[in-house]
């Protein structure tokens, strides 16, 4: 079981639970209510770092999207 202590900081006065991504990380969401919630609340720190599938609920989108984004991110391979 992975240790997740400290990954989701929350206080009694703050109901948000945050998982922080790095400036160069890419977030991919698909299916259900998650894409809409992420779209409303996510603040990207660099262009081309958020990809969402909306409306057609293609199963497996996250796999192809992550793979394609990794192939397109030439800077991370240098």
Describe what this molecule looks like in 3D.
This protein has 78 residues and is α+β, with helices and mostly antiparallel strands. It has a domain at 27-77. Helices cover 26% and strands 8% of the residues.
Q: Can I get a quick summary?
A:
The chain is of the alpha+beta class and 78 residues long.
Oligomeric composition of the shown chains: single chain
Intertermini distance: 33 Å
Beta-strand segment tally: 2
Sheet with the most strands: spatial strand order: 1-2
Instruction: Extract low-pLDDT stretches.
Output: none
Radius of gyration based on Cα positions: 15 Å
Helix fraction? 25-40%
Describe the biggest sheet?
2 strands, parallel
Alpha-beta classification: alpha+beta
Number of helices: 2
Q: What percent of residues are in strands?
A: 5-15%
Tell the overall outline: globular
Return the string of H and E elements: EHEH
Mean pLDDT metric: 67
Summary tags:
2 strands, two-stranded parallel sheet, 78 residues, alpha+beta
Strand-helix topology:
Blueprint: E1 27-29, H1 34-41, E2 50-52, H2 61-72
Parallel strand pairs: 1-2
């Amino acid at each position: 079981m992975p240790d997740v202590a400290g990954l989701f900081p929350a206080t009694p006065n703050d109901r948000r639970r945050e998982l922080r991504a790095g400036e160069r990380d890419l977030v991919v969401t698909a299916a259900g209510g998650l894409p809409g919630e992420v779209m409303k609340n996510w603040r990207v720190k660099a262009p081309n770092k958020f990809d969402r599938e909306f409306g057609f609920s293609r199963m497996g989108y996250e796999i192809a999207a992550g793979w394609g984004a990794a192939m397109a991110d030439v800077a991370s391979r240098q």
